[in-house]
Amino acid sequence: MTSTIRATRVCFQLQIAPELLDEYVARHTPVWPEMLAEIAASGRRNYSLFLGDGGQLIGYYETDDDEAAQRYLAGSEVATRWEAEMSRFFVGLDGRPDQAATPLTEIFHLHDQLTAAHAAVSDNESTAS
């Protein structure tokens, strides 16, 4: 039986204070093992952070239920401690970094478009027969 749950891809943007970049990177090399476990337990997977010029931070993860993942982390003592320690690194952020980040709108995903294109070809072949 095939699962009908479609993973949600979440991408977000934050701004790190430029003077704190080295420390921010050091704090993620490595992340606390108990925080890693909480991220995984929340249902987030394929989680990555990318650092751009001037402290621009782009994050990405996949989840089957982002609202449930956010609720889980909001109630986690470990995540609360981690986010409290991380909050000082960010510019112009109101609230916890894990919940106040600016989400980005996905406009293209290769697999989705290939699947749609394949389905359209199959539909056209079925109609032509």
Summary tags:
Alpha-Beta Plaits, elongated, four-stranded antiparallel beta sheet, 4 strands, 46% helix, alpha+beta
Describe this structure in words.
- The protein has a single domain, classed as 2-Layer Sandwich (Alpha-Beta Plaits).
- It has a 4-stranded antiparallel sheet with strand order 2-3-1-4, with no helix packed on it.
- The longest helix has 19 residues, at 110-128.
- Helix 2 packs antiparallel against helix 3.
- By secondary structure, the chain is of the alpha+beta class.
- The protein has helices at 21-27, 33-42, 66-74, 77-86, 97-100, 110-128, and strands spanning 8-15, 45-51, 56-63, 102-103.
- The model has no long low-confidence stretch (mean pLDDT 91).
Quickly count the helices: 6
Q: How many separate structural domains?
A: 1
State the CATH architecture.
2-Layer Sandwich
Helix content: 40-55%
Estimated structural class: alpha+beta
Instruction: Kindly state the number of beta strands.
Output: 4
DSSP strand (E) fraction?
15-25%
What would CATH call the class? Alpha Beta
Q: Would you give the CATH topology?
A: Alpha-Beta Plaits
Biggest sheet, open or closed, and with what strands and sense? Answer: 4 strands, antiparallel
Radius of gyration: 19 Å
Ends distance = 29 Å
What is the average of the pLDDT values? 91
Stretches where pLDDT falls below 50 for ≥5 residues? Answer: none
Shape: elongated
Widest sheet: strand order?
2-3-1-4
Reading the helices and strands in chain order gives: EHHEEHHHEH
Organism: Microbacterium allomyrinae
Pfam families: rhaM
Protein name: L-rhamnose mutarotase
GO molecular function: racemase and epimerase activity, acting on carbohydrates and derivatives
